[in-house]
Write a structure and sequence with these properties.
The protein is 8% helix and 46% strand. The chain contains three helices and 24 strands. A four-stranded antiparallel β-sheet has the order 1-2-3-4, with helices on one face. A four-stranded antiparallel β-sheet has the order 5-6-7-8, with no helix packed on it. Strand 11 (140-145) and strand 12 (148-153) form a beta hairpin.
């Protein structure tokens, strides 16, 4: 399902970047199989570089797709690449459970450059804010800036490293009970107390124009309004009550893409209406 999600989300974005690939006003899904890109095992990370190439993180390699052909960028002894992100200068950063680095463009091809090694954990996630790389690890936040490393331990063992996000310019992370914390550079501040509902842990904090952002929990989607979370009504609420949300992303500046376990991918507009779906 991770592989399915990654390919659909970003290839969907690429296929409608120039608005020429729309049908009946809806985005078009575009899928690929191992026959197209080779045996890449599971794909955990997806991003797009400044020239429009799709980049997919897999085991000991990054796949690149320019809308015509596939390229494999070797990443020996890196393990599964868990995240990919692009900074304000267009540099593509990557991270695995033991390595962080970037992709250098040399003679028209990418090559991988490792800059730091450690024990980050399988749930590590990296985001970029200005010239800072912020990485969530098993033990806390790691900040890499201009070659220097600083670390901030978690204030609770309940923090989920996968929920790290940049929302309205602030570094945020959630815990397994549904609370949200902001990192001000020196400490974590709890900005949202867990709502009194059995909606599960936080899967994603989504930076979008709806309220102060959307918070996706295991079995529900909430709108952040100041220090509270308000249920965000959608056309798929009935489905979500009996399912588990894997992940969610804001795409194309107008849709929330929600991946639901044993069901499929759903696109919701800013009013929570179902726009498109791709189901198993």
């Amino acid at each position: 399902m991770i592989q399915f999600f990654g390919f659909l989300i970003l290839l969907l974005g690429a296929s409608v970047a120039d608005a020429s690939g729309r049908e009946f006003g809806h985005p078009l899904f575009r899928t690929f199989t191992a026959h197209d890109y080779g045996d890449a095992y599971e794909i955990y990370a997806v991003t797009q570089d400044e020239e429009g190439r799709m980049l997919f993180g897999c085991q000991d390699a990054v796949l690149a797709f320019d809308n015509n052909r596939w390229e494999t960028i070797p990443a020996p002894e890196t393990g599964f690449i868990r995240w990919l992100a692009v900074d304000s200068h267009g540099l593509v950063w990557f991270g695995s459970s033991t390595q962080i680095g970037y992709l250098a463009r040399v003679d028209g091809k990418y090559r991988l450059v490792k800059v730091y090694s450690g024990s980050f954990g399988a749930k590590s996630r990296g985001i970029l804010t200005g010239d800072r790389l912020v990485l969530s690890t098993l033990r806390g936040l790691l900040v890499y800036e201009n070659g220097h490393i600083s670390q901030q331990p978690w204030t609770t063992d309940l923090v989920d490293p996968l929920s790290l996000a940049l929302c309205h310019g602030k570094v945020c992370i959630g815990d397994q009970n549904g609370s949200i914390y902001e990192f001000d550079g020196n400490r974590f501040n709890k900005v949202v107390e867990a709502a009194p509902t059995n909606a599960g842990g936080i899967r994603a904090i989504v930076d979008c124009p709806i309220g102060d952002g959307l918070v996706v929990r295991s079995t529900g989607i909430f709108e952040k309004a100041g220090a509270t979370l308000v249920p965000w009504k959608t056309d798929i609420d009935a489905l979500l009550k009996g399912s588990v949300i894997f992940q969610a992303n804001w795409i194309l500046n107008e849709y929330l893409a929600v991946l639901v376990q044993n069901s499929g991918l759903y696109l919701l507009d800013q009013q929570g209406h179902l726009v498109e779906s791709c189901t198993d």
